[in-house]
Amino acid sequence: MKENFSKSLQHVLVHEGGFVNHPQDPGGATNKGVTLRTFQRHFGSDKTVKDLKKITNAQLKKIYRAGYWDKCRCDQLPSGVDYGVFDAAVNSGPGRAAVWLQKAVGAVPDGGVGPNTLSKVAVHEPAVIINAICDERMAFLRGLRTFATFGRGWARRVAGVRRVALEMAGAALDDAAPETPSAAFETVSRGSTGPWVVKVQEALGITADGDFGPKTEAAVKAFQEAHRLEPDGIAGRITLRALGLLV
After folding, report:
1. Residue 28 — very low, low, confident or very high, per pLDDT cuts 50/70/90?
2. How many CB atoms lie within 10 A of CB 182?
3. Other C-beta atoms within 10 Å of 78: how many?
4. How many angstroms separate the Cα of 69 from the Cα of each of 91, 103, 112, 187?
5. pLDDT (0 to 100) of residue 186
6. Which run of H or E residues covers position 31?
7. pLDDT at residue 184 in the model
8. Which of 113, 109, 111, 103 is nearest to 135 (CA)?
9. In terms of residue numbers, what domain contains 226?
10. What is the count of structural domains for the chain?
11. Are 117 and 105 in contact (CB under 8 A)?
12. 19 pairs with which residues across the strands?
């Protein structure tokens, strides 16, 4: 639905977060879900990582609407289905998101949302479409070689998208469904204390006393090495995602 773009973008940005430039991320430097390559494609090849760090809200809206929302014709999809397709497009590409939508409604999976796909969407319950898309998405993610590293975070993202999309569609929710994740987090390291240290310790399966001491640092480094992350002992966004604490 046309009026759902701004709301859907807000939810997408919760998942995408801020600036990251991790060596194991094939997308390279990324800010709010926008890679440097995508930023350059929309605003010029002379744009740099420094420019990407300063991306404006207007630039974000232009990229997300033209590159994902409009490509999947989300203006013409039912409430909830539009967000589910949009988030999938941002995370895995518009063509793949379109195929998942088409499979959900029994249309030819050619990766382009056209009149035939839209006509089939119209005769299916939005909740059924949403659940089918999320199931297809999880099956795809589980097949990626990096699932062992980032799988828990990806699974939480899809679960959050499913919940919000079903809410937007007015569908009944499972009381056990996860809450929508928060964008707020705290990077913790040696000497840190507080609730985010407890979260990290619980995720690592060690004593959760809220005090980031040498044992916690050693456990974080061991986890990072096992998951092919930089073993710096600092639990920042990438490590927190790998631990399943962020999406």
Report:
1. confident
2. 9
3. 20
4. 12, 19, 13, 32
5. 85
6. strand 30-31
7. 66
8. 103
9. 195-242
10. 2
11. yes
12. 31
